[in-house]
Prior knowledge:
The chain is of the alpha/beta class. The protein folds into 2 domains: about 5-130 and about 400-410, Enolase-like, domain 1 (2-Layer Sandwich); about 135-385, TIM Barrel, CATH 3.20.20.120. The protein has helices at about 55-65, 70-85, 90-100, 105-130, 130-140, 160-175, 190-200, 225-235, 250-260, 275-285, 300-310, 325-335, 360-365, 395, and strands at about 5-25, 25-45, 50-55, 150-160, 180-185, 205-210, 240-245, 265-270, 290, 315, 345, 375-380, 405-410. Strands 4, 5, 6, 7, 8, 9, 10, 11 and 12 form a 9-stranded mixed β-sheet that branches. Strands 1, 2, 3 and 13 form a 4-stranded antiparallel β-sheet that branches. The mean pLDDT is about 95.
Amino acid sequence: MATISTVTAYALSNRFSHPREFNFEGGTRRIFKRDAILVEMETTDGLVGYAPVGASSSAMREYFEDATQDNLTDVLNTIVAPEVEGESAEDPEQVTAIVTNGNLPLFLRSQAASAINIALYDLKGKRHGVPIYELLRDQLGVDGEPRTELPMYASGGMYMPPQQYLEEAKSLRDAGFQAYKYRPGRGVDEDIRTFELLVDGVGDDMDLMVDAHTWWKMDNNSYTPDQVRDIVQQFAEGDVYWVEEPVGPDDFDGYRRLAKSTDAPLAGGENAESADELVELAETGAIDYLQGDVRHHEGYTGCLDAVRYCQTADVTFVPHNFGTDLGLVANAHLVAAIPESPYLECPVYETAAHAGMYPYELSTDILSTSLDRSDGTLTLPDTPGLGVEVNLDVVDKYPYVEGPWTEFIYS
Length: 411
Ligand SMILES: [Mg+2]
């Protein structure tokens, strides 16, 4: 039986030439860099598995709760690696449970367990010569031809004047995307105006999702519950596809109130601290879309628990994904295994061709495989495991830069 010989986590930073600055209602957000963690797992039979580690909501916690990416990397290398080295490389569930049953704080435990689980699934796929989505389809009992051409929604704009969102949405529509998600938070009137502009400008061609996470991060300037209800209802009347995180992640009563008092489909889950908490959010009955993430919610094992719950309830599982292409691919395997999952989240970064939130060259450099993603569709490779080659040059090319990646300044 093959066992795990080494687990190594690398903290990486993508520096920017200058900080990016965004103005929201009552404050400014600065972004200095983007961090990522890459995990490499070697086994006694000579296989190597890889995993991305959460770098989105975890990165928010970096700012708000001091859970930095280098802390998490240290935890992986000094606490988690010794726990799992020597264990079976052939049993993702059993080895992941060692981490989930450990003593780390819940949030760190879930992130660490996720990385271990994804790397073990990559290895399991490689050992059996099948892509991860086939392993997941087996577990879910999904028959028929696998779906490997996955529709993606463009996950873009943050804190811009209304017209700028529309320009972004149009350029993404022209690039082939059939759905656009954006981040408002510029004040009640402006947020409503932005949505109206988008509905008029691209509403016939694109599903529109609103990621309202800023509304509960505005400190003293946060919208009142009545304002939130009124905006959400206006979005509903414009046929919004979903409104994401309109209240704080653990404000289950807030979700329930909005579900009762508006007609908008609600989404959430990326900030749940564990797979159990993810299911608890779905159990409120208040959300329509559950956004688990294999990097946050104990990997495939944790997310499959949530998927199974969704399949018994009136909830659609649609993964959260923001980070590098390794994370995109990891979550894509989940979407490929869930026939009812409508979209994969595709972050829109700044490139030569497109004005996005900020540049993130590491997000594509992390793979030496070039992904087939034209017309808003990701075609998932059918090669074993994650199905992609990791480019280890990123370890030298993107050394970790100390300090927070972002800051919020409230006026
Ligand atoms: Mg979100």
